[in-house]
Amino acid sequence: MNTLKEAQSLLGRRLMRRWRGKLISSVITEVEAYDGPMDKGSHAFRGQTKRNAPMFGPSGFWYVYLCYGVHWMLNYVVGDEGYPAAILIRSTSDVRGPGKLTAHFHISGAQNGTMAAPTSGLWIEDRAVHVTKNKMKTLPRVGIPYAQDWKDRPMRFILDV
DNA sequence: GCAGTGATCATA
DNA sequence: ATGATCACTGCC
C-alpha cells in the first residue's frame, strides 16, 4: 500500500493510550502524509539523521519529535524499511491540533521509536467509523511554506464526523 | 500578526 | 561552539 493510502486508512480508526492504568481513546479525524526522500516537506528530505531515524525503519512504529521546543508531534511510520515515510496524526474527534493531541494523550519523546501495540501503551485499533468518500476531504499540508512544489500537494486528509 | 521555546542540524 | 531553523499554539 502506498503512503497516501496508508494515511487515508488511519481515518476513522481509534487511537488508544494506556496511561497510569487508564485508557484514553478517540477517533482519528485528520492526518498528513510525509512520503519518501524526495518529499521537500519531510524531515527525511535531507537524509537520515538521529532525529528522523524512525522514519527509515519498518512500519508500525512511532516517530515522535519536539516541535518549536514546545509541542510533541505524533507520527505513525509506514512503508518498507529504508524508505522514509510517516503519517502525522493531527487531530482526533476530541482534540484539534497535533500539539494539543499529544498533550491530551500524554505522549512525549518516551514513545519515540516504540511499537504501535498495546505493549507500548500507544496503539491504533481497527476502524470504528465507516469512512465514505463524501465524508473525506483532501487538502494541502499545514506549516511547510518552504516545501516548494510539494507545499500544495494533496497529502492531508480529514474525516467529517 | 507574531513571540515563546529548546532540540536538532549544518557550519566551523 | 554558534546560529538558524522549525510538520505549533495562544495571545495581541
TrEMBL record:
<dbReference type="GO" id="GO:0003905">
    <property type="term" value="F:alkylbase DNA N-glycosylase activity"/>
</dbReference>
<dbReference type="InterPro" id="IPR003180">
    <property type="entry name" value="MPG"/>
</dbReference>
<keyword id="KW-0227">DNA damage</keyword>
<keyword id="KW-0234">DNA repair</keyword>
<dbReference type="InterPro" id="IPR036995">
    <property type="entry name" value="MPG_sf"/>
</dbReference>
<dbReference type="GO" id="GO:0003677">
    <property type="term" value="F:DNA binding"/>
</dbReference>
<protein>
    <recommendedName>
        <fullName>Putative 3-methyladenine DNA glycosylase</fullName>
        <ecNumber>3.2.2.-</ecNumber>
    </recommendedName>
</protein>
<dbReference type="InterPro" id="IPR011034">
    <property type="entry name" value="Formyl_transferase-like_C_sf"/>
</dbReference>
<dbReference type="GO" id="GO:0006284">
    <property type="term" value="P:base-excision repair"/>
</dbReference>
<keyword id="KW-0378">Hydrolase</keyword>
<comment type="similarity">
    <text>Belongs to the DNA glycosylase MPG family.</text>
</comment>
<dbReference type="Pfam" id="PF02245">
    <property type="entry name" value="Pur_DNA_glyco"/>
</dbReference>
